[in-house]
Amino acid sequence: MNSSTSNSRSFRVRQWSWGLIGFLVLFAALEIAVFRNPDLYGIEYRSAVGQFAELDQSFRHADARRITTIILGDSQSKDALRPNLLAEAAGRDADSIFNFSISGGKAYDIYRTYMQYADRLTGLKEAIIVVNEHQINTYNVANDMKFRYFAGLRDRLRVLDAENYGELTLGWLSKAFDLRSVWSKMIQSYFKNTLPKRPVTEVWQPGGLRAETQNEPEGLTAAYAEARADGWFAQYNLTGLQVESLEALLDDLHDRGVRIVILQIPRSDLFEEAVIRKYPAEQQAYLDKIRSLAQQYGAEFAVMPNDSLSLKEHFRDANHVNPAGAAIVSREVARQWLS
Question: What does pTM read for this prediction?
């Protein structure tokens, strides 16, 4: 081999090497600055992941030192327990209450959301944890975008199986891949001109995420209630990551000396009837588990009745209250647990 051929090959190898290095540097920069940045997903802040950017924006405007009471839960408590309503009914400062509830939140998401802010809650004295049956069902956790947003390698290893190991492992390496279903929908919304007109920095509200107020289509029907119950109890599994996450949350709050109240807040009669008719054993297992954990960590547990709520006047769908229902539920929670 002559020297000119050798030099040409070496030059091509150097070109390829520098090209690969350049690609890796660009990829890493995009991962850190774009795909791992919650503000990207906050552009479409109603999405499962985008809501975290809105929640963070709300918390940035709060005086964390003044927060003594927090709410932790899912969309039920996001809609029902508004800090301004709770404060007014309890005779407290609204700035002392913050609602960390997230839409679709399961125990893992709720715990990880709390842990993002826990160190800054230096004045925390009490926590209201709103629970329901779906939150501690571990089934299909690996496909939840909120799980993927938070989960590191250790949590992913907990839920790996023969079908998802490649997806979860590659997703740990690349959020661009992991959350592709989220940002690809944002691109589609952009070209359809359906992205929100205002950024998350302009739509946040004090004390946590905004409550949903719109009525669901057919949301006040028995068929809707049954479909919701079916979704909640699909392949019901009270072992593994979700239950352990709830226990980790209780353990952290207990160690801090925080007063803990665990509540199941009202759902409609339609929903309760569907659950009792189709899933009585699963519901009893859930109640037994929550009572056991409450006793273990010195928490109070109560299932709130819906006696004062009517389907058409106080619910926007079978298991979420509307603003009129929120006023009643917030007032009752304040009377019993915050006054």
Answer: 0.90
Non-local CB neighbours of 147 within 8 Å, separated by 6+ positions: 106, 108, 109, 141, 155, 159
Q: What angle do CA 187, 188, 193 make, to 5 degrees?
A: 95
Phi-psi region of 208 (alpha: psi -120 to 50; beta: other; left: phi over 0): left
Q: Are strands 69-72 and 320-321 parallel, antiparallel or unpaired?
A: unpaired
**CA proximity to 206, closest of 125, 99, 119, 292:** 99
Question: Residue 258: left if φ>0, alpha if ψ -120 to 50, beta else—which one?
Answer: beta
- DSSP, collapsed to helix, strand or coil, labels residue 317 as strand
pLDDT in tens, 121-160: 999 999 999 999 999 999 999 999 999 999 999 999 999 8
Sheet with 69-72: strands ordered across: 97-99, 69-72, 126-130, 259-264, 300-303
Q: Find residue 259's DSSP bridge partners.
A: 126
| Claim to verify: residue 174 and residue 230 sit in the same structural domain | yes
Are both 19 and 167 inside the same structural domain? Answer: no
How far apart, in whole angstroms, are the C-alpha atoms of residue 189 and residue 182?
A: 11
Question: Reduced to 3 DSSP states, what percent helix, strand and coil does the chain have, rounded to the nearest 5?
Answer: 60, 10, 30
**Which range of residues forms the domain containing residue 272?**
36-338
CATH number of 174's domain: 3.40.50.1110
Q: What are the tens digits of pLDDT across the range 254-299?
A: 999 999 999 999 999 999 999 999 999 999 999 999 999 999 999 9
| Structure-derived torsion over alpha carbons of residues 109, 115, 121, 122, reported in degrees to the nearest 10 | 150
